[in-house]
């Protein structure tokens, strides 16, 4: 189907990750806010993890969208074999 | 006690997520041209996508909430729902059954039954499945809306309608493809949303070893936390070992089952019956783009499934360990009690100083309406003079000796998440709810359109007509699910009966598929009568057995819902054990009757007709053109070995 799901996943997590990271940077001195997360600025750290994950998905989508590369992560299946004959 | 307060950032994350899933639906809209695009995705999706959707559709909100609850109640033994109750069946589906589902070109599981047997078997299966799916969806929606209402203070109706509305929007626009694609996004949302909560919880409790040490103490005296009746005691590893407590017999583990019931009842009958025949999950594999992709779908799904206990069961164990550590200021939440009741009980506490301790405890328990912890109430009454109202209410909250295990996940989220992470975790919970619901709806609309509407109500219409009906069934499915949610809210007991009946219907199912796929001589009449007999068998079994806790001193059955209403031939140590033995019994009844009747009746399908539907009459698949490591049988074996290793590590 025409949509590569890695684009929306990559975009969404990059966006949410960036928001968390920025919040984490702004509130870094706010010890009270991070008391519940054991004194760790989890918004900053987890935001960065999400950004990295989102970027990874976007890179995979970009590599996958290049025609003739065939570097798809789907278990080495040769692309373009719709409707295998049944049970041969 | 107080609802969780969400900040601007939390709502923003939630809205971004909703925006993305709806956008996916709209982007896919232009590819929806025929009924098969809409209902079966036109068999065009890559393996890793169908694989993650396979697991995500199964991971509804109830599963997430329920597994954390079981983690607290039963400990690591809960992992068997994954390692015993899922992985082997998923591998079996991939290696042995998918070739027939996919190769037969059936569009649904009931349609396969029609090809293999006859219309009667299909009708029985499709009607049961359609009804069950909407009820299951309604039950889960009700549970989630209640949870959001109690813990976030959201309006029950608004939560119910808005969540359903979002699912309706993207499934209606993009059909099964959109459900599958969003399920992948939801899968990552669930993992990335809950992982930090688990990490923080484990860190707070002092790491894995500290946690297991605390749980050893809990196991030797579970009555101290009111987990079991006074006097119950287990070996120290009852909560922290997967097999050792089971081998000790039903009384040696909090689950109350022995290893045989676990392996045969759950691991074979129930698990294979669910994973190998339930269209909700099989549909995801059927949407894959070719045979290899279809067979690898459950195998891709098995990898996260195997590791999920760390995400969904571990939080329950952390919560229990924290509850058992007084200075952590955490407890598994008590059942929801209104603020007025706490206020009234606080007055009782203040005036109870003069009473003797038994009378005081009774007065406070009556005021709260729950069992209370004696020593904690006594201490509270003693200090009542020096405490303000809020502190007394908090003390009462901590002294309630009952647990609302379903609140475990959200209570941990509330404890550890600052704004930002909070929004992410709550979005993960909503994502799991939506993935489960979209799974139900897409399975329902396909079975309704192809197996009921096209088969019995309006055959031989144009494809556009069925496309339209598929969309209409999507709306109807969601509307009826909402109605079921309200029904469940109103009539909890009726819902319990309905779920009980579903259990009876599902228990024998795998016997029919097993014989149908691997024995050409099996006939339609044999399968149909066998299925009915299996359902009847499980009903009778339930009527004649019960659990030990359900019989009073005089030998009378207390609650007919828990079985034994026609007499008690046998008593099981727990409902779970009763359930596993019931499934085993139903399976054997269905298996033997199907065998006997098939041998006694004439075959109606020739060998030629059964080609591609039955193992012995189908040419073996040749996997030789693929990379050795990517062949389903090889992958399946690797997964099984990994699963065994996990079991040994946590033995």
Q: What's the layout of helices and strands?
A:
The complex is a heterodimer of chains A (88) and B (651).
Chain A: H1 6-26, H2 42-65
Helix pairs in contact in A: 1-2
Chain B: H1 8-28, H2 35-40, H3 47-58, H4 61-74, H5 80-83, H6 87-103, H7 109-116, H8 119-152, H9 156-204, H10 207-220, H11 244-247, H12 259-275, H13 279-286, H14 291-307, H15 309-312, H16 314-323, H17 339-351, H18 357-368, H19 374-383, H20 389-399, H21 408-416, H22 421-457, H23 463-490, H24 492-506, H25 509-518, H26 524-544, E1 545-547, E2 570-572, H27 575-600, H28 632-649
Parallel strand pairs in B: 1-2
Helix pairs in contact in B: 1-9, 1-22, 3-9, 3-13, 3-14, 3-22, 4-16, 6-12, 6-14, 6-28, 7-8, 8-9, 8-22, 8-23, 8-24, 9-16, 9-22, 9-23, 10-16, 12-27, 13-22, 14-28, 17-18, 17-20, 18-19, 19-20, 22-23, 23-24, 24-26, 25-26, 25-27, 26-27
